[in-house]
C-alpha cells in the first residue's frame, strides 16, 4: 500500500511508521517450517494455527497489561521467570509506570517449530503497539518487534475453541490466581512450565521505538510486484477441501471475499466499524477498532473510494480439527486519502487511484453448511444483519463471527512479510 493511513488494509502498515524507508521485515521462517508444523499436527490433532494465534495474541496483551500493573507474577503458569524479568526491564511500577493501555498486536508470525523428544518449541515474531502511562500523567506510545519462544512438554494436546485463549489456570480452568505457596487455590497445584499449555521460555525485544499512530504521513507501497506465494501442492489441498465440503463453490467463495472486502472498506471510510463486525473474528476486529478510534480522537477520516477488486487468487488451504482456512492474495485499486473534520485533504490523493495487493485469510468451522441467506442477512437465522459488539445476532443469539455459519476474515498480511 502507498499510504500508512490506508486502513484495514492496513492496520499492519500503521505499525511500521512512515519514514519513507523500507520497513523492517519479520525474521525469515525456517526452511522446514511446513514439515515441522505437519509433524506437530500429527502428534497433536487438535493443533490449530488460528487458535494458537489467538492464544499468543491474548497472552501478549495480558502480559503487557500485567507489566503496567506490577502483577506479572500471576502469569507464572504461562511465562517463565526469565521471561517475566525480560519484560520488567522495559519498565514497571518501580520506574513510575502505572498502566499499559491500547495494546494492539499488528502481526504474530510463527517463524520456527521444533519437535523434540523432550517437547515442542514454537518461536513467534510479534509486531505490536502499546501506550505506557505514568503516575505523572505522561503517556508514551511504542512500536515494538519481539520474538517469544513458547515451549510445551511431550504429549500435551491443544485446547479447543473457547478455552485455548482464556488465560486461566492451565490445569483446571479456574481464575488465574496463586496463594502464598504458589498453588492454584482451585486445583491446589503448582503449574510448572509447559505441563498443560504453551509456556514462554524466552523473550527477545528486537526493536522498540517511541511511535504513536501515524495517520497523516505517507509511506511507499512494498511488495505489490512480488510474485504470488503459493502453498506447495496447493491442488492436493484443494481436492481435500472440496471432498470434505460437498457443495463448496469457488465462485461463491470469491463473491464472499469481495463482499467482505467492500464492507470492511466502507466501515473504515465511514468510521462505523459496526458495519464490519459481522465479517471479522474477535481478534482482527479489536485491532481495527483501535485504529478507528485513533482516527476519531484526532478528528480525521481515511477515505477509501472507487474501490475495485481486480483479482482474487487462492493460494493456501489449511484444515485442522476445528476450522477450514482459506488464504487469498487480493489485488485491488482505490482512491485513498485522509481528511480532517473540515474536509481538507491532509495526505493521499482524491483523484489518483492506488494499486496494491494483500493476503487475506478467511476461516469457517469444519462441517459448516453453506448458508442459504444473502451476505447482508444473518447466516444462521436469515434475519437482517443486526449484531452486537460481541458478534452475536440480536435475533437468534448465534455468534456469527466465530465462523460457525459462514466464512469470516481472521487475518490480513502484507506482501513483503507474507511467507506462506
Structure in words:
There is one protein chain. The protein is an alpha+beta fold and 420 residues long. It has two domains: 192 residues, Nuclear Transport Factor 2, Chain: A (Roll), CATH 3.10.450; 181 residues, Nuclear Transport Factor 2, Chain: A (Roll), CATH 3.10.450. Helix content is 22%, strand content 30%. The strands form two sheets. The protein has a four-stranded antiparallel beta sheet with strand order 1-2-3-4. It has a four-stranded antiparallel beta sheet with strand order 5-6-7-8. Strand 6 and strand 7 form a beta hairpin. The relative contact order is 0.16. The N terminus is likely disordered.
Protein traits:
420 residues; alpha+beta; disordered N terminus; single chain; 30% strand; Nuclear Transport Factor 2, Chain: A
Strand and helix map with partners:
Layout: H1 11-14, H2 33-43, H3 49-69, H4 81-88, E1 97-116, E2 119-134, E3 139-152, E4 199-210, H5 234-244, H6 250-270, H7 282-297, E5 300-319, E6 323-340, E7 345-365, E8 408-414
Antiparallel strand pairs: 1-2, 2-3, 3-4, 5-6, 6-7, 7-8
